[in-house]
Amino acid sequence: MESIVYRTAWLTGLLLIAVSGEVFSADFNLRLHHFLPEASKIQQGFLEPWAQKIEEDSDGRIAISIHGGMSLGGAPSDLVSQVEDGTVDMVWTVAGYTPGKFPRTEVFELPTVHFRSAYASNRAIYANFELIAQDYTTVKPLLVHVNSGNAIHLQTQRSDALSPADLQGLSIRSPSRTGSWYIEALGASPVALPAPAIRPALVDKSIDGALLPFEILPDLNLTTMGLTSSMGKDGSRFGTSSFLLLMNPSTFNQLPEDLQQVLNQHTGLELYKAAGIIWDEMEVPGMQAQRDRLYTMGLDALDPFETIGQQVVNRWIDEVSKQGIDGQQLVDNARKYVGRYSRIITSVDVNF
After folding, report:
1. Which sign does the torsion angle of CA 304, 188, 146, 196 carry?
2. Which of 95, 90, 89, 92 is nearest to 108 (CA)?
3. Helix 327-341 crosses helix 118-127 at what angle (to 10 degrees)?
4. Under a CB-based contact definition with an 8 Å cutoff, are residues 238 and 211 in contact?
5. Which one Pfam family would you cite for this protein (predicted)?
6. Among residues 278, 346, 326, 269, which one has the least CA distance to residue 44?
7. 1-352: what fold?
8. How far apart are CA 351 and CA 287, in angstroms?
């Protein structure tokens, strides 16, 4: 029911924009920069509808132009600095592309903390935002969210459930430093790569596989590569990635108060819910494409991965404690709220 209500509200807003047909001359033209192709589901299915709603609700006084594929210059790792220094007004990026810069936020991407749902973890992030707010002193966070979680995708062919022994000595793409720690603990070698670099690395055999959600597989043209995919039979994943929709604070402060309110109205709890539902639903095409090469693991097969995942959690707690951060409090709160909101199912059952 949650999925139907929020998706309907989202699409209804878009329909009103399309039907109105009005063309506005904006008072404030804002540029949003990101790393995925402009034809990606994330730009067309999430960023563009969000920007259009803001334009409509501001009576055309705010216009947000979206620039994908790093078309405004730089590398994905530069996006945070670009929004900090005002090169662009907004960015959508992966927290892990700037390792260690958002240490508190990392708690929500840890294995054994994130379970299987972007919706659940997004609700947990929103409910606990005051505990991670210090990560964002140089930017205005509009949305901090996750994807549905990492499956393990390998070039090697499989006929049974995955075990840590199968990963020994392999080179696996990692989305973040916590992902790298997990890969190391599993006995493989982590390779830090932004998403657009994954397919070339698989083609030239410089990596043997990747930690990735299913939603990105079609956009990166990975569903045609014969990869085998592994996840829990209960939908559980091997950690996740944190994503950041950030704004330059000076740009925000230059807006009149009524336009600041428009932005704030479109960056609250409803956006966190909508992003969770959209990301969970975006998993379905990639999972269906991998259907004949998707292996789901029972509790016994998952147990060694969970044990290793807890070792990564302990390492993270030790690491952030050196910065004066109470990592155990963050882990306890994150698990509590992820568990609470995981009772709300928004994604397809893995047994198609």
Report:
1. negative
2. 95
3. 130
4. yes
5. DctP
6. 278
7. D-Maltodextrin-Binding Protein; domain 2 (3.40.190)
8. 10
pTM: 0.88
**Three-class secondary structure assignment of the chain:** CHHHHHHHHHHHHHHHHHHHCCCCCCCEEEEEEECCCCCCHHHHHHHHHHHHHHHHHCCCCEEEEEECCCCCCCCHHHHHHHHHHCCCCEEEEEHHHCCCCCCCHHHHHCECCECCCHHHHHHHHHHCHHHHHHHHCCCEEEEEEECCCCEEEECCCCCCCCCHHHHCCCEEEECCHHHHHHHHHCCCEEEECCHHHHHHHHHCCCCCEEEECCCCCCCCCCCCCCCEEEEECCCCCCCCCEEEEEECHHHHHCCCHHHHHHHHHCCCHHHHHHHHHHHHHHHHHHHHHCHHHEEEECHHHHHHHHHHHHHHHHHHHHHHHCCCCCHHHHHHHHHHHHHHHCCCCCCCCCCC
- What is the residue extent of each domain of the chain? 1-352
The pLDDT tens digits along the chain (352 residues) read: 444 344 545 544 544 443 333 444 789 999 999 999 999 989 999 999 999 999 999 999 999 999 999 999 999 999 999 999 999 999 999 999 999 999 999 999 999 999 999 999 999 999 999 999 999 999 999 999 999 999 999 998 666 678 999 999 999 999 999 999 999 999 999 999 988 899 999 999 999 999 999 999 998 999 999 999 999 999 999 999 999 999 999 999 999 999 999 999 999 999 999 999 999 999 999 999 999 999 999 999 999 999 999 999 999 999 999 999 999 999 999 999 999 998 765 544 444 4
Comparing C-alpha atoms, which of 175, 117, 108 is closest to residue 313? 108
d(CA 302, CA 28): 51
